[in-house]
Write a structure and sequence with these properties.
single chain; seven-stranded mixed β-sheet; 24% strand; globular
Length: 195
């Protein structure tokens, strides 16, 4: 079975492939099919945005499409950047400038608690959908640490492991991350659906 990932993010592709390949699912990028579907993320929640992206890519490709919408929510910033995590600071910002902006906005904050949320949606040509959510609690570090991962990984600290996401191996990250948790729930639901 082939799923199209509603994303241009190769890091997300690797994380999805690692888990879904065990179920005989091949995950391909939109670009592999000659597609580039721009979806305006108008949802107010991660779940709404994931569904918007998956539905648009399924309609464009005619294949089951899977999308993830995720971000970091900081308690001191009333949940920001939240659904705007990937667009935080504006279109000219890259991963590094986004997490630097987050660190600047957190300066002086009394609480550094935060959580990462991942919502996954899969839309099939039949109209069926599977949705899953994963949440990973943590804190925002005072400075970036580690070289792995992407996005906010260098500043998202896991107190119980005493490491940021960026300091974890891909296997360690998959076991504890928001996307790893969402994919575990998704995996169970997909198994039931395919059964």
């Amino acid at each position: 079975m082939k799923f199209v990932l509603a994303s241009q993010n190769k890091h997300k592709l690797a994380e999805m492939q690692a888990i879904l390949s065990a179920h005989g699912v091949e995950v391909v990028m939109e670009a592999d099919l000659g597609l580039q579907v721009d979806v305006e993320e108008t949802g107010e929640t991660f779940a709404e945005n994931a569904l918007l992206k998956a539905r648009a890519v399924m309609e464009a490709s005619g294949l089951p499409a899977i999308a993830d919408d995720s971000g970091v929510c900081c308690d001191a910033l009333n949940g920001a950047p939240g659904v705007y995590s990937a667009r935080y600071g504006g279109p000219e910002y890259d991963d590094v400038s986004r997490y630097k902006l987050l660190l600047a906005n957190m300066r002086g904050a009394h609480t550094r608690t935060a959580h990462f949320t991942s919502c996954i949606a899969c839309v099939f040509p039949s109209g069926d959908t599977i949705e899953a959510e994963g949440i990973c609690p943590g804190t925002i570090a005072f400075a970036p640490q580690g070289t792995g991962g992407f996005g906010y990984d260098p500043v998202f600290f896991l107190p119980e492991l005493k490491k940021t996401y960026a300091q974890l191996t891909p296997e360690e990250k998959a076991a504890v991350s928001h996307r790893g948790k969402a994919l575990a729930v998704f995996e169970k639901k997909l198994k039931e659906y395919l059964g």
